[in-house]
Amino acid sequence: SVHVGLRGVSFDYGDGSGLHEVSFDVPRGATVALVGPSGAGKSTVLSLIQRFYEPDAGSVVLDGVDLRCLSHRELRERMTYAEQEPAVLEGTVRSNIALGLPDAPESRVRAVLHEVNLATLEHRSPEGLDAAVGERGVRLSGGERQRLTIARALLPGRELLLLDEPTAQLDPANEDQLRQAIRSRQGRTVLVAAHRLSTVLDADRIVVMESGRVVATGTHDELVRCS
Ligand code: ADP
Ligand code: ADP
To answer: What's the predicted TM-score (pTM) here?
Structure first.
């Protein structure tokens, strides 16, 4: 797995919003939660780690190496991102999973389908023409699409998982199941963005953001004690 560090990162979207001198670490193999209200800068942090944008000041380091020294290809191979609003996915549930598991035995694809509770929907298209209604319609619910997006993020080979409010649309049973699936990926480093402190009880460390700044860091218990 990999260590991620933000070192005094500032980034301006051009209108004064963005990040102001953000620093924190995601230790190798740890799960760190980024918590804060909407607009706090959580998604911007996840974007900078993927090098969608370059910091105006400061740097993001991966195992001590500045992201600017790594190719986009290398970044893509080392990290995976499950976004908050899953993109439109082509093909079927099964083909989406199989795509991330080239040469994997049938049993492995099946195991992943079960792990995210999508085995009964394996032949559905995430989105497409709904023959019954005769119009373009959604074939998977928001929660089902979110589970598929996370399943793709859990596929093997990536050392760093970036999750943006990964289970916001899920019911408690599916949320528990997915949380376990994420936790069972031992040796992976996980950075997860969330609105509320109460949903990230199991993170090793929490980084609280507000208006583009880090305002507190600590374990869940430490943060609850002084708030
Ligand atoms: P969060 O993920 O915590 O909700 P964001 O990182 O999305 O916060 O947003 C941080 C700030 O940057 C907000 O003030 C938001 O309005 C602004 N912002 C986000 N994306 C853009 C963008 N593409 N262009 C301009 N401002 C943006
Ligand atoms: P809400 O939308 O209800 O305010 P959040 O936006 O805070 O909740 O949701 C963030 C999501 O991140 C929660 O649904 C939670 O299950 C999920 N989450 C929290 N900790 C972890 C973790 N360690 N691994 C994966 N997902 C997590």
So the answer is: 0.82
